[in-house]
Q: What sequence folds into this?
């Protein structure tokens, strides 16, 4: 029985991971759970899975959690860590073999790094970790021998496609993109889109932040950067194709012109189970894809004019150093501001571009450098936001 | 430089193999060429590739060939073998590592068997060999350590999809079928289709026999039987999905619900090159697939009512023994009769079914048994053909 730890257990990926663990009863033991402020749900997870170590956002949450557990008559109270330090305790919890990295945003950076340093297999659903600090993470993994396995469906698909191939015989990775809710929308409609419109993702149900990233297609831009580190590829070796049905999760093109694709239903549990059981594949009761009933599949070139975030991400990847961290932080702040209706949808890419242009990229030799760039970009964009309302430039 | 031999060098696969060898200049040397009656083309191939051994259909062809070579001023005359014996000489030609098995029909059986016995890698494009004598062929390959690599696009795709997977973790092979020219035709239109209509294949350009098999969908039925032997699967583990665009060449379904597919352009040279260079993949100048320009992809369940050959093939596979040989022989004779306009298109499956029903299957322990069943079925169907004209039952 393999012990696992989940960073972000109350989020979408975290909850699905626990469903997978439950379905594979007996194969995995949940040793540690890291959450934020969703104390009631965490308490429920604790009583069901009985971890030894947990983490919550702050002292107040910790007190609330203790009270919740007491009210439920649960006496096997775990060690409760606080904040990022608490998440790090979850990440390196003793005897854990697999850490699921599913904390949204830059918060997942340090705990993931600690898990990789400690040689744990990290099943990574947090895109930002590799976008911000891909070089540091992959270096840490190499040093300790840790495996880094992708949980988001596109990279997980690439990982599956690459199983039988050698590095030199793969010409290109091709990430599929649903195109989001504005795939066929005009520039003008996109410019003035509301949060309600942007949150209507056509095929996947995910968290708000990722859903907005899908609407701007920054999601795909971030995935290009992530793929660069996961699979050791250059920007030129990573392409994007728009595929509205999200049935083909991603593809690889081989040097001989052959394309290998991974297809499946849009259920994150498939990718989660794959990352947990790799290199084995276990039978699952999850719904399987029936191609004969899934209708027609379409593929288009992405439109970088209506979706400038794609080009911004490629540019940041090519610039390298701290630039992807700035791209990511600027995006996080801009998306949050959009969700709070403080900026227009069309201002998200313009704010990111402005932040990248204002930034002087530094080489990345330690976490402090990227965290400083991250902080710089957050402040820079936050300062610009009051001015941005109503402006179209 | 690897030496290769081609059984069926003047046919569609043979000619494409020589184009691949030419494109990969320096990697492969053509040591032997086996043909039938296309003497002029064979002479041209001989002057270009300078094989040591060749084969033609009979003495008359051999004399014609010598005359052709003499007229061309070619003095490096190869050894010329005759008929099946000649093809067997091509198959076991000394120092050859790879034999391309591309003779159409049951004629390829013995030479392929000899190549496998001799431990040669066989790149097999002749479906009938495995349909008739799959058990014997795979047993011979196991004994000598010979590799059996599929060249037709569907099985080649399956081979590519299976590269990174273990046998027990693959749930099902899914062969894609274009559906042929009568995919959307009514039973009545199919019943009375002319050779000209049946030869209009929507996506692949192939020989006449295979094109008619595609129109009846017997092609796919034969491929199911072929897949059974190539990949050691039961009939239940092999499915068919109709995919009119022929962009996805085939797929596998894993036990965890994931599907891996191989996609490419409809050019046989891809599969031929793969079988020659495996396990390596070499760069190729062949056209690559551009998904963004290939339109929409559709998938449907096959209709076994309008295409009864599919069910006949599954039934023959499940019965086993000599039954698939009878299915194949009956099909060859019926297709030839149809092309000669001696029977209606709709009578092809009825003749095959009648032959299978009239046959008492025997276990297959040697080539003689299957060849006897093959001969029995050919005579049985030929005898029925005069009676079949104009009948609808």
A:
């Amino acid at each position: 029985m393999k012990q696992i730890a989940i960073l972000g257990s109350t989020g979408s990926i975290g909850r699905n991971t626990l469903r997978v663990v439950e379905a594979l009863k007996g194969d995995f033991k949940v040793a540690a759970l890291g959450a934020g402020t969703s104390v009631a749900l965490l308490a429920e997870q604790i009583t069901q899975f009985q971890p030894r170590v947990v983490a919550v956002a702050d002292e107040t949450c910790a007190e609330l959690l203790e009270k919740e557990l007491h009210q439920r008559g649960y006496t096997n109270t775990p060690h409760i860590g606080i904040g990022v330090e608490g998440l790090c305790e979850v990440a390196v919890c003793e005897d854990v073999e697999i850490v699921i990295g599913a904390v949204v945003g830059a918060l997942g950076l340090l705990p993931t790094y600690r898990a990789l340093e400690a040689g744990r297999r990290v099943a990574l659903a947090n895109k930002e970790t590799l976008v911000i600090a891909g070089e540091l993470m992959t270096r840490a993994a190499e040093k300790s021998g840790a495996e880094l396995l992708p949980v988001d469906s596109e990279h997980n698909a690439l990982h599956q496609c690459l199983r039988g191939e050698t590095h030199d015989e793969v010409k290109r990775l091709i990430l599929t993109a649903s195109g989001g809710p504005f795939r066929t929308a005009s520039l003008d409609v996109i410019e003035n889109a509301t949060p309600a419109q942007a949150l209507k993702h056509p095929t996947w149900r995910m968290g708000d932040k990722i859903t907005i990233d899908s609407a701007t297609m920054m999601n795909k831009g971030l995935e290009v950067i992530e793929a660069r580190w996961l699979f050791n590829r250059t920007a030129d070796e990573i392409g994007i194709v728009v595929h509205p049905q999200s049935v083909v999760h991603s593809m690889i093109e081989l040097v001989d012109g052959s394309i290998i694709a991974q297809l499946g239903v849009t259920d994150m549990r498939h990718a989660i189970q794959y990352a947990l059981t790799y290199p084995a594949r276990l039978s699952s009761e999850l719904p399987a894809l029936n191609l004969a009933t899934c209708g027609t599949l379409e593929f288009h070139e992405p439109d970088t004019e209506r979706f400038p975030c794609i080009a911004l991400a490629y540019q940041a990847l090519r610039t390298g150093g701290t630039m992807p961290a700035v791209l990511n932080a600027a995006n996080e702040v801009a998306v949050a501001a959009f969700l709070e209706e403080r900026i227009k949808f069309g201002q998200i890419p313009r704010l990111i571009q402005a932040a990248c242009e204002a930034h002087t990229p530094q080489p990345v030799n330690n976490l402090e450098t990227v965290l400083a760039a991250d902080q710089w970009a957050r402040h820079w964009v936050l300062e610009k936001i009051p001015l941005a309302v109503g402006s179209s430039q």
